[in-house]
Amino acid sequence: MSPTYITFFMTFLLGIMGLAFHRIHLLSALLCLEGMMLALFIALSFWSTQFEMLSYFSLPMFMLTFSACEASMGLALMVATTRTHGSDHLKNLNLLQC
Q1: Which of 76, 92, 73 is nearest to 23 (CA)?
Q2: Which pTM value belongs to this model?
Q3: Distance, CA of 34 to CA of 80 (rounded, Å)
Q4: Structural domain boundaries of the chain?
Q5: Phi/psi of residue 89, each to 5°?
Q6: Could you say which architecture CATH assigns to the domain 3-87?
Q7: I need a labelling partner for 71 at 20 to 30 A (CA). Which of 28, 60, 78, 86 fits?
Q8: What is the 3-state secondary structure (H, E, C) of the chain?
Q9: Any bridge partners for residue 87, and if so which?
Q10: In sequence order, which residues have a C-beta less than 8 Å from that of residue 4 and are 6 or more positions away?
Q11: Which of 26, 28, 22 is CA-nearest to residue 82?
């Protein structure tokens, strides 16, 4: 395995570990998700340049578009949650809590 693949894998794994272990604020969870999406975008861009085919060049752009839509939707949900609940703590977002 080349060092480039190891770097992409470790970046994605760091995002997963941040999402799993640092779950206090909604903003930190959204940043971990965004880091994972950017790692996938870079890996997909690198993969498409390896094959040097024109049909693979549009795939990273679709992923980047979906990542931007995911980030804007997450920030909108965070603003709405902060306005209704008063904070962005994930423990306050449990609707089943008495």
Answers
A1: 92
A2: 0.79
A3: 19
A4: 3-87
A5: -70, 135
A6: Orthogonal Bundle (1.10)
A7: 86
A8: CCHHHHHHHHHHHHHHHHHHHCCCEHHHHHHHHHHHHHHHHHHHHHHHHHHCCHHHCHHHHHHHHHHHHHHHHHHHHHHHHHHHHCCCEHHHHCCCCC
A9: none
A10: 46
A11: 26
Which token pair is 70?
A: 């995911």
Residues shown for the chain: 98
pLDDT in tens, 27-78: 888 889 889 998 988 888 888 778 776 667 778 888 888 888 988 998 998 8
Average pLDDT over residues 2-22: 89
DSSP β-bridge partners for residue 89: 25
Express each pLDDT in 64-92 by its tens digit. 888 889 889 989 988 988 888 888 887 77
